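Why do we bother with holo predictions? Because pocket geometry can differ from the apo form. Keep that in mind while you read this record for zinc ion.
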Amino acid sequence: MAPVDIADSVPYSERPEWSDLTPVAQYENIQPLAPIFYNPDYKDATDYFRGVVKTGELSPRVLDLTETIIRLNPAHYSAWQYRYQTLIATKSSLADELILTNELTRIYLKTYQVWHHRRLLLTLLNDPLPELPFIEEILKVDVKNYHTWSYRQWLLAHYNREDMWVQELPLVERLLEEDVRNNSAWHHRFFVVFERGGADGEDTVRQELAFVKEKIALAPNNLSAWNYLRGILDHKHLPYSTQADFTKLYVVSSIALNEESVVDLENPRPSKGAQLPSAAAIEFLADVYEAEGESGLSKAVELWRSLADEHDTIRKKYWEYRIREATVAAPD
Amino acid sequence: MAPTTLLIDKHVRYIQDLGKHTDSLAYHLTAHLRINAVYWGLVALCVMGHPDALDHDDTLAYVMSCWDDDAGAFGAHPGHDAHIHATLSAIQILAIHDALDRVDVPRVTAYILALQQPSGVFAGDAFGETDTRFLYIAVNALALLGQLDRLDKDKTVGYIRQCANFDGGFGSVAGAESHAAQVFVCTAALAILDRLDVVDVPSLGWWLAERQMASGGLNGRPEKLEDVCYSFWVLSSMSILNKMTWIDADKLIEFILSAQDPEGGGISDRPENMVDVFHTQFGVAGLSLLGYPGLQDLDPVYCMPASVIDRMGLRKGWKALPRRPL
Ligand SMILES: [Zn+2]
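The structure, written out:
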């Protein structure tokens, strides 16, 4: 995030149109920890900004000044806040401001403030539809950016419009096509399908199970997809045992592809070359056995052992904890 | 070769020198975090057993110079507008120095409470940005000031509930993806409010354990890179849930130590990157929770020296790994 070079621009202290304003230096009447030597451009602009705040001026030139500061330091929350107040007070075009904000969003997408400013503008403009393709464009720069995603989720929840919601699954599918391990996209899918209420009937569940299993087949060690599978089952209170046949295909070290020629759509097989066994599948199947009670316990313990000793050794202590918890009789 | 022990002397010097490079542009661009940086540096120094490495009087004078008398709270630097994050850092620094009597408690309490939104979440300042980080900051600050009774706890907990996700984690706002830093702020806020019953402990404990990568380091979300700061976000949450024994402590210690700068001191986000005080503090904090020898205890709930929180009688039921002998 390189600050924009404003070396060519005239300092505010040399601009005749600003000569009426008294700049206020930082640390007036204050004993700092150490002497301060400022970057001259930034010092110049922020001195005038403090001067503006002191007089309470809300005028078009303040928009220019705050833009300069924001371009030098997009995390300057007071400059953003004062800019917003000025926009409202001067009845400036918010549509124009959104165009400027588009540019600033592209440059400073990791800064909270630029997204919050955008949200304030949208709340007044009330035109959310063009936001969706804009956000998708921004996601191309950083596909897991937290601010970008939470802004999109805010838009959807805030406006709650069918013509917006329908765009979401195609977006998620495009992104998972590019990277099946994109956890942000998986989270968004859950948000869209299960958290808006109403639209998660039996058909949806069947469709989502098919979708996630197909993606697990592509990359059997993808935690995001396994979490999604568990998420569906937990959300709909379905037992994990409903997925035991599917999971068993992923706990073996290799799979004989000619073993079964009939394609089972319910239980897609690991793709060719997939890394097996999948630790996430072993864990899932162990949960299935554990839920069976005493009869499944030894099978569950065997699977946990294999995780502790071979397939997930970094979490050895966790798997040993699971074995202890499940096998220790007489809870207190 | 990567360092294999904690270079305490180098880190103490690094933190002491932070305020001296004031002619760099980077110094000014981070002015909005200055008081936070003093807090991070001070906590790291306390944990490393050098609480007096920053001058007591200078530090307190600096904190008080950040007071924004119009707002009735602290800004990030003298002359800066008040912000809830800066306000917490000021309170934390003063608490460490046992100097909370300098705070105008009624005004600061009013400032914080006024930032709570109808949904229960808190805004960070008058600009209105909301986030569970600010909610935690409010809860932490009110607890340190002894003003928690003034908070609408049910409303606050209600918002945290809205941020709970299907994977057991928490996001920054309702609907947002689970993220280790947001898991920390929600879990720690619930701990302070004595409402850990809200947490799905088996799911969240497992989600946290899953953050450890083959390198030993922790990441903040599935399929993302490991980073030293998650040593704090993840471990503090695990210690609050009493699940610290679920991770491979030796490998994580090795990872944190390998991110030190053996020449100039300081710790970076991962080996070979530039150090900063933020990652230095969170690296040292993580090591303390892992029982690294010779360090002081860190209270993960408040991210403060445990001795300070114990003195104030605010300790909650967290559990770190036992301190290893030197
Ligand atoms: Zn980090």
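The mean pLDDT of chain B is 94.
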